[in-house]
Amino acid sequence: MKxxxxxxxxxxxxxxxxxxxxxxxxxxxxxxVLHDVTDVSDSIVAIFNGHVTARQTGSPMxxxxxxxxxxxxxxxxxxxxxxxxxxxxxxxxxxxxxIRDEDGELLGCLCINLDTSYLSVTHSFVQDLxxxxxxxxxxxxxxxxxxxxxxxxxxxxxxxxxxxxxxxxDKDQKVAFIQxxxxxxxxxxxxxxxxxxxxxxxxxxxxxxxxxxxx
Length: 215
Prior knowledge:
By secondary structure, this protein is an alpha+beta fold.
């Protein structure tokens, strides 16, 4: 399914037939997604076999995608063969390839998500497909259907990380909470600073002060 956005960067647009070709080659168990990382709230500009993760054009960036953009790729534009799980419980094997413009700026990424449950019927073929690179095996990724759902998940993870309900957090715990949200890329989402301030019952300037305390 292609985006209805009025404007898609020409470089990203050139990848749409590539994405469609990959999806058609590998079949219904292979979802191929083209993301525009300049708008993480509405990042999917093209998706084929979207039933694998139940997403569609206009769905947001994943939590792993946000974290990757925030932390940077350290010279590596490939994230290959990592495990993830769709909202419907399907086990997914994923690879993501970054797309840059002429100046080397990150524009988007092409992601391939294989529903491995379909492959178990052919054991010899599946043995190779199910292999994951050891250093990527513990990656976790959630395929949120809306930006609100994505924000909620990251906030829930931050609360678990701090180990204290939001309403009981002291100042140091609030600082740790906000810094975790930043590390996860939450504040790349428009309006998320104001949302965090509302949740903690502080001003957005207080949020910025908490972020300045990072080492």
